[in-house]
Amino acid sequence: MRAQLRSEFAKLRSTRTILGLSAAMLGLVLLVTLLHAFSLSTTDLASRSGQVRVLVEGGELVGALFAGLLGAMSLTGEFRHGTIRPTFLVTPRRGRVIAAKTVASTLTGFVLGLMATALAAAAGTLALAARGVTVQLDSGNYVVLLVGGAAAASLWAVIGLGLGAIVRNQVAAIVGLCVWLLFIENLLVDSLPGVSRYAPGVLGRAITGQQTGTLHTPALAALLLVLYAAAAAAAGWPAITRRDVD
Amino acid sequence: MSSHAYGNNGPSSRGVVTAEPVVAVTSLTKRFGAFVAVDDLTFALEAGTVTGFLGPNGAGKTTTLRVLLGLAEPTAGRALVFGRPYQELEQPARLAGAVLESNDFHPGRSGRDHLRVLALAADIPPSRVDEVLDLVGLVAPAARQVKTYSLGMRQRLGLAAALLGEPELLVLDEPANGLDPAGVHWLRTFLRSFADRGGTVLVASHALAEVAQTVDRVLIIDGGRLVASTSLEELAGRGQTLDDAYLQLTTEAAS
Lengths: 246, 255
What we know:
The structure holds 2 protein chains of 2 kinds.
Chain A: H1 2-13, H2 17-39, H3 42-46, H4 48-81, H5 84-90, H6 94-130, H7 139-167, H8 170-191, H9 193-196, H10 200-207, H11 218-241
Chain B: E1 23-32, E2 35-45, E3 50-54, H1 61-68, E4 76-81, E5 96-99, H2 111-121, H3 127-136, H4 151-163, E6 169-173, H5 181-196, E7 200-205, H6 208-212, E8 217-222, E9 225-231, H7 232-237, H8 242-249
Parallel strand pairs in B: 3-7, 3-8, 5-6, 6-7
Antiparallel strand pairs in B: 1-2, 1-4, 8-9
C-alpha cells in the first residue's frame, strides 16, 4: 500500500486543487470569524464560551467542511476525469487504493483543520482585542481548539471519502456535504437539539470544546465521530471494491 | 500462423493451443439488467500476435475489455490474463497495459505528472517515465497541463501510460482515434514491432482500413456474440477482404 500512498500524495501535489481549496477555506475562515467577532455584542463576547464560539464557528466548521470536500473529491475527481480507470488498471486490488486514499485524506484533512483553526484562533483573538474585550481563553482552550479542529477535519475527510465512494458524482457529493453541514444540521440544532448532539457536524464542534454544558465532552465527541468515520469507510469500501467501473 | 487455412476456415479452426494463451476468455457473459452486452463469448490470444477486435457500436467490445481488465465483473464465465483474473495479478502494469478511453486525465495535471502518479503506484522507477515520453514523442509538452493537449497527444499519453511497465500485453480501444496520418503510421509500426518482439496486442476498432494493415487476426463480435475469429490469411485464401467479411457478418450491414 506504500506505493499507492506515494501515488496519492503525488496526485494531490500535481494539481492546483489543494491550493484552491486551501485558499477558499482560509478566506472563508477569516470572513466567518471576523463577522462573528464584530457582529456579536461585547456582553456576548465577554464570556469564555462566547469567545470559544467565535473561534470555533469559523475555524472548526469551515475546516471540517473543506476536509470533507477534499476527501470526497479524492474519489469523485477520479470518476469525473476518468483517471479512476488508469488508477485501477495499475492497482486492480481496489482495497489498496481506498486504504491509501483514506490515509492520505486523513493526513491532509488534519493539516487543513489545523490551518483553519489556527487562522480562526489568531484572527478571532486579534478581533476580540480590537473590540476591547478581555480575552478569557487560556492555553488549554487554544490547544483543544487546534487539536480538536484538526482531528475533526481529519475524520470529516474520511466521511467525505466514504460519501464520494457511494455517490461517485462530484457535484452530488459536494452539494450533499454543504447542504448537510450548513443547512440540515442547523435545522436539527434548532428543532431537535437532543438529537443534534449526535449529528456529525455538531460532534466536530464539541471536539473543539464548544458549549461543554450542552454538547458532548471533546473526548466522547471524538469517539462518536470516529464511529461515523468508520461507518462511512465501511459503507464506501464495498461501493468501490464491488461495483463496476464504467 | 496456420498454413493450412484453405481447408479449415471456420471460427473453430484454432482448436490446438500449444502454450498457455496470453488472454483466455471463456463463455464470458455480461448482463446489465435485462440487456445482454456480452453473450457467451470465447476466444484466446497467443503471444506475438496483433488481434483486431471488431464490431459495430454497442456490440460489446468495450464491455469485454473492461471485464478482461478487472474494471467490471463478469455475470458468467471468465476472462483470464496470463492464466489469472486481472485483479489477481500481483504487478499488472508489468504484464498488461491498456488504453480504454482517450481522455482519462486530470486536465490540470501535466503529462509527466500523470505518468509519475501511475509509476509510483506500480513501483516503476521514475526514469521509465522519461523513456516512455520519449518513445511516444511527448518530451517537449510533458510539463504542460493535459488540457492544452490535442486529441492525438492525449492518445499518445495514454499509450505512454500503458507502456510504463514494459508489458507483454497491450489492450487498446480505438487507439487511432484523433491521430494524424503520421501518428497512425507510427502506431501501426509500433504495434507490429511490439508483436514481433513477442508481445501480444488486442486492438478494438471501427476503422477497418487501419486494422487490415496492422493485425494478424480478427475477432468480430455482434450483439455480444462472436461471429468470426479468423486470420487475414484465411480471409485472403477465401478471396474475401476484411470489409467483405465484416459487412457480411454484422448487423451493421443491414442498416
